[in-house]
Design goal:
Length: 194
């Protein structure tokens, strides 16, 4: 007699599949891959993929959501133990840059060309800008930063984050994403320090 799956097994398996899917997409992109190729690469069946999403387009969007959820958890865990507003913003932006550093140019091009995935990226960039605004506001309240307009500073950061995401910074400066985020952190925190 077959044993029923252990509680949490299905969730763990889904997470493993999404992790593998994200890793595949980050390296190779996704536009050129068929569902058959994805299933072969993940060593699963197409029917297994259909338990994750109803179509390739939905699968790409769900994988993009998974990537950003995983990245957000990682970024937040990195700044949690850090004290000091300047250090927290620097750690936050550096962690965002590191999370995006795993993305190949092909993945970024595919993401930009596919509106449902691009929308997920843009929403997460706006979330990150909001988080930077929170960190700036905390720093102003603590006296670490001069009294700046936190929403403006966050909007400035968001504008650069979008340019980094769209590879504009790389094209014009040669900086990879991780270094671009480090420079953004240095300029932003230096400009608002008390």
């Amino acid at each position: 007699m077959e044993q029923p799956p252990r509680p949490g097994f299905a969730t763990r398996r889904r997470t493993q599949l999404f992790d593998a899917l994200v890793d595949l997409f980050l390296v190779e992109g996704f536009a050129h891959l068929t569902l058959d190729e994805i299933a072969n690469r993940l060593r699963c069946s197409k029917s297994t993929l259909y338990t994750l999403a109803g179509s390739k387009e939905q699968l790409v969007r769900a994988a993009t959501v998974h990537f950003f959820r995983r990245a957000t958890e990682d970024v937040e865990s990195r700044i949690e133990p850090i004290g000091g507003a300047r250090e927290r913003i620097t750690a936050y932006l550096s962690a965002v840059g590191n999370a995006l550093a795993a993305a190949s140019d092909q993945f970024m091009a595919d993401l930009d060309a596919f509106p449902p995935a691009r929308e997920v990226y843009e929403r997460n960039t706006q979330f990150a800008a909001g988080r930077v605004q929170e960190l700036i506001t905390e720093g102003v309240a603590a006296g670490d930063f001069r009294d700046v307009h936190a929403a403006f500073a966050a909007d400035l950061a968001a504008t650069m984050m979008v340019r980094i995401q769209q590879r504009g910074v790389r094209d014009s400066t040669g900086l990879d994403d991780a270094h671009a985020y480090a420079e953004l952190a240095a300029i932003l925190t230096g400009g608002i320090s008390a």
